[in-house]
Design goal:
- The protein is of the alpha/beta class and 412 residues long.
- The chain is built from 16 helices and 17 strands.
Length: 412
């Protein structure tokens, strides 16, 4: 079944807010066999919203819409939908009681704008929102379905998980079965990997596709199989997986469909090991990545951001001789940084970074993008790698983070 997602809000168009809703919704829909054929973002304009609905109706029998359901004047979605479907708004005592209970639990006072959240269309089925104040509305007309949900991510996710997805599965028979397999691949640029896999891609059956999802310094590959029978989907994906893994021996970092920091955290936890960081050019970005994972306190000990040379000496124990002879961006210094963090923060592993992120600070000997990364372990081993990235600061920092996580995964 084909689905289109429409997100509403001027803040999405001007870049003030990043649309994370449609990405999350796409993953959830895909998991239950619904194909997202298009994602559209529109502003808070009734005519523009109506035009988007007209276009979506021609493309997909199901349209999921988020945003514009708040109590303020710029939230016009429900009024637009009422005009679109030729219905009126009415006050729902049931929805109002839900809002009262929510405000009571949070110790907040109701006001007139809050009361307006209980105004709902009489031309659709109102689905109660247990996670917020704006209800969800389910419209069906001549075989076409539109579901309007709040734009607040936590409320949208609650409604999708508890109400919308189960109703879609009941309402529509699954006509295709979709399965994915992801791989994290290192040691290739995107173009070099595409050349290496040319024969493999040419032999893929029509039911299987390969997608390249490059990130800074690493590539995520996704195999997707889509058939009308579940057994056919599984068979096609299994056969393609086997062939791809044979072609990429020694370059697959992980076959888990999770980000690097989540994978690293899971492996640290499984090993009963801890990690710390000593960071210069990344300014704490490696630590931020590791601690972005819920439960990271199980394995993350701490971080020392040693941006200045005196901090490297006084806190991490880097020798003045190493700094003087080799400079801060060097194998000798980054390895001493890792050993210092290992000891100071009492971890099983310590990652250290030192480099020239740019755009200034480079020299002919060490141009912008020069980076050293080291890992030290409690068993006394220490290793480091030298990288020469590019001239863009943000990319250099992210590449360093990814390479540090890869070094940790390899060591684990």
């Amino acid at each position: 079944m084909d689905v289109e997602i429409i997100t509403i809000g001027d803040e999405l168009l001007i870049g003030q807010v990043v649309d994370t809703n449609s990405a999350w919704m796409g993953r959830m829909l895909n998991d239950i066999g619904f194909r997202v054929v298009r994602k559209t973002a529109v502003g808070d304009d009734g005519e523009v919203i109506a035009a988007a609905l007209d276009a979506a109706k021609k493309r997909a029998p199901v349209v999921l819409l988020t945003g514009g359901l708040g109590p303020t004047k710029d939230d016009i979605t429900l009024h637009t939908l009422c005009r679109y479907f030729g219905c009126e708004m009415h006050f729902s005592e049931e929805v109002y009681r839900d809002i009262e209970q929510l405000f009571g639990r949070n110790g907040r006072a109701m006001n007139e704008l809050t009361r307006l959240q209980a105004m709902v269309p009489d031309g659709g089925t109102v689905i109660r929102n247990r996670a917020g104040t704006a209800p969800c509305t389910w419209f069906e007309r001549d075989g076409w379905l539109l579901v309007s949900m709040p734009g607040v991510p936590s409320e949208m996710k609650w409604l999708m998980t508890h109400e919308v997805l189960p109703r879609l599965q009941t309402r529509f028979r699954q006509d295709v079965f979709i399965r994915h397999q992801s791989y994290w691949v290192s040691g290739y640029t995107e173009s070099a990997l595409a050349i290496h896999l040319t024969d493999f891609e040419n032999r893929l059956p029509p039911s299987v596709k390969l997608a390249y999802l490059p990130q800074a310094g690493i590539i995520r590959l996704r195999l997707s199989a889509c058939c009308r029978q579940e057994a056919d989907t599984e068979a096609a994906l299994t056969s393609s997986r086997r062939q791809l893994e044979e072609r990429l021996q020694g370059h697959i970092v992980s076959d888990e469909d999770r980000n690097l920091e989540t994978i690293a955290g899971a492996r640290l936890r499984a090993a009963g090991a801890t990690v710390a960081t000593a960071e210069s050019c990344t300014g704490g970005a490696v630590a931020a990545s590791l601690t972005s994972v819920a439960g990271s306190s199980d394995y993350f000990r701490g971080s020392i951001v040693a941006y200045a040379d005196p901090v490297k000496q006084n806190v991490l124990g880097v020798s003045a001789e190493a700094l003087e002879r080799h400079g801060a961006v060097s194998r000798e210094v980054v390895e001493q940084m890792a050993c210092g963090a290992l000891k100071t923060l009492d971890a099983d592993f310590a990652l250290a970074t030192s480099g020239i992120a740019g755009p200034g600070g480079g020299t002919p000997e060490k141009p912008v993008g020069t980076v050293w990364i080291a890992i030290a372990a409690k068993d006394g081993s220490t290793s480091s790698k030298h990288y020469q990235f590019g001239a863009i600061r943000e990319q250099n920092i992210q590449r360093t983070v990814n390479m540090a996580l890869l070094m940790l995964l390899e060591r684990l």
